[in-house]
Design brief:
The protein has 117 residues and is an alpha/beta fold. Helices cover 23% and strands 32% of the residues. Strands 5-4-8-6-7 form a five-stranded mixed sheet, sandwiched between helices. It has a three-stranded antiparallel sheet with strand order 1-2-3, covered by helices on one side. The longest helix is centred in the last third of the chain and has 13 residues.
């Protein structure tokens, strides 16, 4: 088996997570967070569409991690994001972190919005 070192560009991968926090690029963030090639910042949760819309020019899809279990996001939020041209993929936060890291390593234009586990 041949292993290749993963090289990330400007964006920072998710290094870890736990109850109430995420470690992204070696920095710990408490509570909900949004990360993309544009940077990492706190996210106000499902009511905070503006923070998600701010990455519309830098991402083709946003992975939304809904905590420990997969859950639906509000219909109005999904509609606003899709109207802005963003694809939405909803999954549990651990799966969203893994998927984001893989696509990020491939140089894809992705963003990640996370609710803590």
């Amino acid at each position: 088996m041949r292993l290749n070192e993963i090289t990330f560009t400007d964006a920072r991968p998710v290094d870890g997570y736990g109850p109430g926090f995420f470690r992204i690029g070696g920095e710990v963030f408490d509570g909900p967070v949004l990360t993309s090639q544009a940077g990492t910042c706190p996210w106000g949760g499902y009511e905070d569409a503006e923070t998600l819309l701010a990455v519309a020019d830098a991402a083709d899809v946003i992975f939304v991690g809904t905590g420990g279990e997969t859950a639906h996001i509000p219909t109005a939020l999904r509609a606003r994001l899709e109207d802005a041209g963003l694809g939405i993929e909803v999954m549990a936060s651990p799966a969203a972190c893994r998927t984001y890291n893989i696509l990020l390593s491939e140089g894809r234009r992705v963003a990640l919005a996370l609710i803590p586990v």
